[in-house]
């Protein structure tokens, strides 16, 4: 009886177990069938993105094409036949005879990898027993063990490879330099004969083929090349940044400046492929990148570049320009649109482009900042419109005399700007700082005067970023020493430093009373050339001082170009300011500043009513003080630009 109950129990238990198994199988194969099919498919399928579409073009403000795409004959390899390693090596030796490759790019590191691949057993025998034992006991990882083996490969080992071997090995490296299912670029800009050979013989070259790809064509040569920037493969240091944004490691991206900043607009969308069993099927076709239109006037840009290049050569052929080698020029529309961004450098007899220096290099501005200094005096109540002060040398105890270029006697605010009186600004700064001046006496100031001056200067764009979309913009040096004499230096532009872009924004702000963001992008265009988005001019801040003060300063700047220090700079009605500053140069390039020089600047706007253009130029280290002679490069460049300004 007891045995019979056990049998019944076992039968019931067996029935229940089979019921559970059958139920589970039914659930997996019928109810949840689609889920597991998708899981299987996801293991066998890969989604691949290929950036094979044209990059957007770049135009100037008048829709003149600056950057286009050019056809590139490309040879590529894809292991569509599932070749083994040995088969790929054999193929590399065969194909390397049909293509010209710079195999000198082959590194010793990869050559060791290749040697180890073919001589693994031999190299492993060179390892000591302790290392082998550590690996067997999993005390070191596979990668660490491989590094140990690689270190055993010697230069003598690599000497078995001749030039033909190295060429084939380099080709093999290119054939495997990414995921197996991807197309590997073997050579861009292939010759016609190479392209034809691989095209005509692709059916028996086991994965080698040809295609037309595209690169950048710069229709104006080196003009603006530094501002436009470059494209290329993703740099290793930015790999994570791009991968996290959905890029593939082999994508071509903007590497610098305009190409980099507007890469998302220019690059367009990718073709999307489904890879299944090494077969590729197009799922979604990508589209060409959008075009962009810049604020640059390319005709004006070329003209200014040519004028600047010519004058730099003239300067270097003149005397007292031993340490001078570059100048920067910017032209804007006073609303922030950059029309010209020019920079040229003299290097071993050649003139090279250095336009990016407009935002990266800084200079002691000198007297060009005196319009802002005058505003500080008016708005703080230190001086009044029309105030007359005596231009005479200032002497602070234990310091050298501080004077204007020449003693001017009694002078009002307009003529103080026109003739660039330093002393007028010294005396104004002392009043702003609440100082009581006595000849050759100690001078005590309220150090907050530095903050007051910098606050006003910032409103005009001096000492702050201009808003330009390019990376690496500098705002210059900001002095931390607050001794009385340095406040006086600050007021005449002999302390903090600024970029040429800041000086341009500053004079535009003086002209309009509002500070506009500098920008190079004018509009985003679709593939038909239609404007998708127009970039509006942006006001960063208002100067926030009474119009009467701004108008008074403008009157002084008009006097500069009418009868003052800038009267020979322009033949048109304009307002501007000259600036000469003491500067220093590392004459033997040992990292130490050792030679005193003179740097010159000029800023201006025109016309006087409703200003349309703002121009700034700076020329560092144009002369040595002891000579007294300064080649008038700023004057010559500005006069030639303004004589032709309204022709564009």
Major sheet attributes: 7 strands, mixed
Give the number of domains: 3
Tally of DSSP β-strands: 24
How many H/I helices?
Answer: 24
CATH topology of the largest domain: Beta-lactamase
State the end-to-end CA separation: 115 Å
Mean pLDDT: 90
In CATH terms, the superfamily of the largest domain is DD-peptidase/beta-lactamase superfamily
The CATH architecture of the largest domain would be 3-Layer(aba) Sandwich
Residue share in β-strands: 15-25%
Low-confidence stretches: none
What's the CATH first level of the largest domain? Answer: Alpha Beta
User: What is the overall shape?
Assistant: elongated
- Helix and strand composition category: alpha+beta
Radius of gyration: 35 Å
Overall description:
The chain folds into three domains: 48-78 and 181-294, Alpha-Beta Complex (Penicillin-binding protein 2a (Domain 2)), CATH 3.90.1310.10; 83-178, Penicillin-binding protein, N-terminal non-catalytic domain, head sub-domain (Arc Repressor Mutant, subunit A), CATH 1.10.10.1230; 299-647, DD-peptidase/beta-lactamase superfamily (Beta-lactamase), CATH 3.40.710.10. Helix 15 packs antiparallel against helix 24 and helix 17 (370-380) packs parallel to helix 19. Helix content is 38%, strand content 22%. Strand 11 (326-332) and strand 12 form a beta hairpin. The longest helix is centred in the first third of the chain and has 30 residues, at 2-31. The mean pLDDT is 90. The radius of gyration is 35 Å and the shape is elongated. By secondary structure, the chain is α+β, with helices and mostly antiparallel strands. Strands 2, 3, 4, 5, 10, 19 and 20 form a seven-stranded mixed beta sheet that branches. The chain has a six-stranded antiparallel beta sheet with strand order 13-12-11-24-23-22. A three-stranded antiparallel beta sheet has the order 1-8-9.
């Amino acid at each position: 009886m007891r045995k019979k109950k056990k049998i019944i129990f076992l039968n019931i238990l067996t029935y229940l177990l089979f019921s559970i198994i059958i139920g589970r199988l039914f659930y997996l194969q019928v109810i949840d069938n689609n889920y597991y099919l998708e899981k299987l498919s996801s293991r066998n399928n890969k989604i691949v993105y290929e950036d094979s579409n044209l990059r957007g073009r770049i135009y100037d403000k008048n829709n003149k094409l600056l950057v286009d795409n050019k056809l590139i004959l490309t040879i590529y390899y894809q292991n569509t036949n599932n070749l083994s390693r040995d088969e790929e090596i054999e193929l590399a030796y065969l194909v390397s005879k049909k293509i010209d490759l710079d195999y000198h790019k082959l590194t010793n590191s990869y050559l060791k990898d290749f040697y180890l691949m073919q001589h693994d057993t031999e190299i492993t025998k060179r390892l000591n027993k302790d290392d082998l034992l550590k690996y067997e006991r999993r005390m070191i990882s596979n990668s660490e063990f491989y590094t140990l083996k690689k270190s055993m490969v010697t230069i003598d080992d690599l000497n078995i490879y001749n030039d033909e071997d190295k060429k084939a090995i380099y080709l093999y490296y290119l054939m495997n330099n990414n995921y197996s299912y991807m197309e590997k670029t073997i050579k861009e800009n292939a010759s016609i004969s190479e392209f034809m050979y691989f095209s005509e013989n692709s059916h028996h070259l086991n994965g080698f083929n040809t295609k037309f790809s595209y690169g950048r064509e710069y229709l104006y040569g080196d003009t603006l090349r530094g501002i436009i920037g470059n494209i290329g493969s993703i740099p290793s240091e930015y790999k994570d940044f791009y991968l996290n944004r959905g890029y593939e490691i082999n994508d071509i991206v903007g590497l610098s400046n305009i190409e980099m900043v507007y890469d998302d607009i220019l690059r367009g969308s990718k073709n999307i492929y489904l890879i299944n069993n090494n077969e590729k099927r197009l799922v979604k076709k990508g589209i060409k990148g959008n075009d962009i239109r810049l604020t640059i006037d390319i005709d004006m840009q070329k003209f200014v570049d040519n004028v600047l290049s010519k004058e730099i050569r003239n300067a270097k052929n003149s005397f007292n320009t031993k340490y001078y080698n570059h100048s920067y020029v910017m032209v804007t529309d006073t609303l922030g649109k950059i029309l010209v961004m020019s920079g040229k450098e003299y290097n071993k007899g050649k003139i090279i482009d250095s336009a990016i220096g407009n935002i990266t290099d800084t200079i002691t501005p000198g007297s060009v900042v005196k319009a802002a200094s005058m505003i500080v005096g008016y708005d703080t109540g230190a001086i009044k419109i029309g105030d007359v002060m005596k231009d005479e040398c200032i002497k602070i105890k234990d310091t050298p005399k501080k004077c204007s270029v020449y003693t001017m006697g009694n002078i009002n605010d307009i003529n103080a700007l026109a003739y660039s009186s330093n002393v007028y600004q010294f005396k104004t700064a002392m009043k702003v700082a609440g100082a009581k001046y006595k000849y050759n006496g100690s001078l005590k100031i309220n150090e907050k005067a530095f903050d007051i001056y910098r606050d006003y200067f910032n409103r005009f764009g001096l000492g702050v970023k201009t808003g330009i979309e390019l990376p690496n913009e500098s705002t210059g040096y900001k002095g931390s020493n607050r001794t009385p004499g340095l406040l006086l230096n600050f007021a005449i532009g002999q302390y903090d430093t600024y970029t040429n872009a800041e000086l341009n924004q500053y004079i535009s702000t003086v002209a309009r009373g509002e500070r506009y963001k500098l920008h190079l992008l004018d509009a985003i265009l679709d593939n038909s050339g239609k404007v998708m988005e127009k970039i509006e001019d942006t006001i960063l801040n208002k100067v926030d001082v009474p119009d009467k003060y701004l108008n008074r300063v403008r009157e002084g700047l008009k006097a500069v170009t009418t009868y003052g220090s800038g009267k020979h700079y322009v033949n048109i009605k304009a307002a501007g300011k000259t600036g000469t500053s003491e500067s220093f140069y590392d004459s033997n390039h040992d990292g130490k500043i050792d030679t005193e020089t003179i740097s010159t600047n000029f800023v201006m706007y025109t016309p006087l009513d409703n200003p349309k253009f703002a121009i700034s130029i700076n020329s560092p280290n144009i002369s040595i003080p002891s000579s007294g002679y300064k080649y008038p490069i700023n004057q010559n460049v500005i006069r030639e630009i303004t004589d032709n300004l309204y022709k564009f």
